[in-house]
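go over whats below:
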Amino acid sequence: MENLNTEAVIEEQATTETQVEPDQVQQRQFALKQKKKKRNLILAVSAATFILFMALFGVNLIRYGMAYLDFSSKKYESASTQFEKLENFLNSPDMVIEADYKQALVVCESDPKSCVGLLENLLDKDHKGVEDSYNQWVYTYATSLFGQKNYNDAVTYFSKITVYQDSKAKITESYYLGALDKYAQGSAFYTEAFSDMEKAALENYKDASEILKGWTYDQAVALAADKQYASALENINKLTDYKDSEALKKEYAYLYGKQLIADKQYSTALTVLEPISGYKDSATQINEANYQLAVGLYTNKDYATAYPMFESLKGYKDATAKYYACQDILYAWKLSGLAVSKSASSYPAKSDQMFSIYDAYNVS
């Protein structure tokens, strides 16, 4: 009985396997087809990419060859333009720099100024020959300018390469010679001439310091002759024991002080005259300036400030009378309670004159 059952089970399983097997086969075949399609697609894309790459590479390679041909033919501007369009293809960036450098050297022979500009634009590029060529051609151009007596521009270019050869010395010499030229052209150029000679003097170049002293002295004398005493004094004060400069310092200060008084600039006049109070009648001029300041205060009824000023000027003009007038007014104010509390202590304790309050207010 058991054998019959077992055979039945086996027969049933066999029947089932026979039914399932065709489905699995179909699935496997479908999967294989899909894999084949995917593989073919990948191959097609790869082939297309390769072909495109080769096409582009080939075009760029041709362009590179044309650019290099121009470079070899010394057509550096054209080569630079073409290499630049190739961007990062092979060593195109380096070739752009090299072409520009070669072009600059070509320009140098006929136009050193433009050459310097071209090389200057390459200084921040990684090219071992640029800096040396730049220094050489800047020096050459600056020396040419120097030879043409174009000292201003010579200084400009020598200043770009101060550590190259004798450039620093050339700068100083250019200032010196340029200053002489400018001074010889007349007063319109004196300011520039002085400035340049001062720079040469700072480097102790030749007789620059002595020339500068002579120019300063001559300028002071000329300005004084033209009654420009402020400028004359400013110039002569730059000198120490040069010719009669010490005597002229007092003379110009004296003349300037008198000029200021005439222009009613009394406070400024005092700052100029007080240091030379013993010179000529400077003391009288100082009194005049102080007197006029005091009169101004008196006129504006600032008697408290004018009072001590007139006191120091007793005996000069009518300063004594005005001193007593201020005293009477201030004493009257003090008695009447008109004095400001903070100022009352500075008011006179008595009046030395027999002026009435009415007269005191109407002193002329």
In short: The mean pLDDT is 86. The chain is about 75% helix and 0% strand. The radius of gyration is 50 Å. The CA atoms of residues 16 and 205 lie 118 Å apart.
